[in-house]
Every structure is written in C-alpha cells, then in structure tokens.
Amino acid sequence: MLVAVAAEPESATEASDAELAGRVRGGDRAAEAELFRRLAPRVRLYGLRHLRDPAAADDLVQDVLLMTFDSLRAGKVREDERLASYVLGTCRRMAIGLARSTTRRQRLLERFGPELAPAAWTFDSPSLDLDRLVSCLERLAERERSVVVLSFYADRGAAEIASELGLSPANVRVVRHRALARLRGCMEARA
Amino acid sequence: MTRVTSCSDPLDLATLVDYWFGDLDGPDLDRVEEHLLECDACGSVLRSLMATGDGVRRLARAGAFGVVVSPSFLQTASRQGLRVREYRVPAGGRVDCTLTADDDLLVSYLEGDFRGVSRLDLVVQVEDGPEHRVFDLPISPSSPELIVAQAMPALRALPSATMRMRLLAREGEGDRLVGEYTFAHTASATGRE
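The joint structure predicted for all components is written out below.
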C-alpha cells in the first residue's frame, strides 16, 4: 500500500520571505514573527537613507510593518513573490509624511544632541575604532579626504561637492567610491 | 525565491555609496531599494558604510584631522553650534594666531588667485624644521581662497612657533608660487587635551 507522506513544513527561519508571506495570510504567528524580524531592519535602513533620522526611521518601521502585515492578513498582497515591491511602495508612501516632521527634529538634534544622535544610527553595527579611523583618513589623498568629509559631515551629494571643489559630479563619485573602498580596506585590515 | 543569507548577485560598493548619498534615481534606484528589502548581506555592507560615516562625522566635528573644506562644511559646523576660530590670510600675508580651550575648530583661509591652476600643492614648515608637502589639494579655480580645517590635536600640542605655508601650482615640470602665508602661533596656556 502506498502511503502519502506529507512534507514536513519548513521551519519559519528556513522559509523564504514569499513563503512566510503566504503563511502569514494563513494565520501562522511564527511566520509573522520571523517575517517581522527580517523586514524591520531592512525598512529601518530605508528610513535612515531617506529620513536621515534614527527616530523617524523607527517610526517608519512601525508604520510600514503594521500596514504590510494588515495587508498580508487581509490577502491584499497579491503576489507573495513581490513582497519586497509591496513593502517598498509602502515605505515610499509613508516616508513622505514622516519627512516633514523629521526636519525640525533633526535641526534640534543636530544643535543640542549631536553626541547622542550618531550612535543610534548604527544600533546594530559593531563599534568603530575611531583612532584607527583617524589613521585611515590621514592615509587618504587630500581630495579623497575632503570628499569623504563633505559627503558625511556636510551631508552633500556629488553635484554640490563638485560645485564647491571645482570637480565634475562624475569625478566626485569616482573619488568618493575610491576613498570609501580604501577606508573600508584600511579598517578591515586591522579588524 | 529563497531566503537570502548570502547574496548571489550583490550590489557593488560604488552602487551602495551612490545610493546612500542620493545619487541614484529612476530604475537604478528602484532596483537597489527592492534588493535591499530582500537582501541582508548587502544591507550589512551598507550598515558598515553608515558606521564609517558616523565615525567620520564625529571626528570631523572634533577636528581630529586636517582637511581641505568648503563653505558647506562651515555651515554645518555653525548649525551645530561649534566655535570655529578663523584666520584669513592674503597671499604674502602674516597673521598672529592662537587657540583657546573654547575653540572647537580652527580654519585658515589662504587667499590666492587660483585661475588656471589644475594642480595645487601645499608646503608646510614649522620654524626651521623639515618641509612637509601635501599634494594635489582640491580647489575650485574660481574660488578666492583655499579653506583648511587644521588638525586640532596637533595644533594644541604645538608650542609657540612660526609656521609657514606655501601654495604651489604645479606647471609642467616646475612649481609656481601662488602664495606664501605666515602664522605666528602663540601656544595657549589652557589648550585642551
């Protein structure tokens, strides 16, 4: 007699995002928890990139994931394979509203709490050896160091830096990339 | 689609850098953002880049290293409420200078005519010590000055001394003097560590 053996369901941690999305629709709480665990840091990264503010990025995570899971449970996400696209669309819509309230907070934080703010940007990153970073920065060529500082400290894009330093935007991008690759290599050489 | 634990088609660092600084748009931006919402490996590289950025911000704010800067750097420092001591020196000029415990940054404006200059070097000499040449500074030919944020730890450790700076435009096989600048530095009795 042939006995049909049902495949063991994959554990939530081994399943793909799309598989988890399907299970969430079926009410699987473990799948929901695992998908939340995966998506939260990715959405936060999106928030940091667009809002440049850790607190606003945290708000975005809450807003986007509430909406996403609500839609998943309600079967409104049509293709599980396109989950990332759905989340991206939600991120973009939600970030517009948050951006407005973020600007004032950023100004205040920049002025009164700059020592507190940066740490929150990388809450899940390893600590940075600042002495080593100084040494690595000092090894860069002058224009590389200037471009890195204006990029991160003055928060300027390639076109603005190009205008200030008399370079072309394409040249700034090349210099910026080369400098950051060198910094990365230098930091990792001692890590 | 399988869960991405390592990336089979990783974004290169240049793309991630352009993304972080807002220099991607259109389909390129869509592709990168969608990828980052699926890929933790590339997200990790971007987080590492952000951590470096955090460090650069902190160090720049503390004046931990010398660097050629621009007006936007000074605007940021001003917004942050930093005390920036500034010395503006014309070509051939001399200035008395010092540093106090209240100063967060010290910036020198080296004035000159940079039109036609494609490569600019800076030679620094303290008293009769050895010359230190810094190559290929970034300067806009239309700018009336080179703005240099000095390394604060080195300045705080500097005794009273005369420092000479020369800006040299590299032309063919030789150098043309753009300007010479003299700083008569008085060490502060209350310099911070």
